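Hi C.,

You asked whether I'd gotten around to modeling the 171-residue construct. I have! Everything is below, sequence then structure, no commentary in between.
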Amino acid sequence: MMDGYHYAVKKFQNEKMPEEELERVYELEKYLKGLSNNNANKICIFCAGNYGLQLFEELRSRLIYVDCFSDNDSKKWGYILGGQHCISPLKLEKDKENTLVIVATKTPDSIINQLKGMGFPYIITKQDIDVMLNHVPPIKWIMNMEALKNIDYSSKETLYLIDRFNQTIFD
């Protein structure tokens, strides 16, 4: 006999996403692309602290793909956060014409000035997009992974595969 959890997961997986919810996700994606006049094809969260990770989860739960994190703290460079690499501002600068940078800190002014000084054309703060994020409810996709055994979700290979899967599904 199937327990309540498994029944709920199976039922949820068989349900179609309500059209209204899907439309809101498209609106959010259109809004983010519009911030760069559709020129940016990448999103970077600047500030890889708790506020940045919170924003990452908020975007991911709304099917918005984040390409990377960046931070002024060199100790964070090279780390993988939520499946994405944290890179230096100088490395980010190499692709500034194609990247929407979302500054995720409670006091963003100095970082905005830094990025503008480096010539970044597409900068916004988490605070600026919060209204739109609040308009789009998170979409939860539940997968019953319990049947899979002996998977190391912390290995680089697994994280790479998850990243590629997410790009394939969400891009």
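If it helps when you're writing up: The first helix runs from residue 4 to 13.

Thanks,
B.
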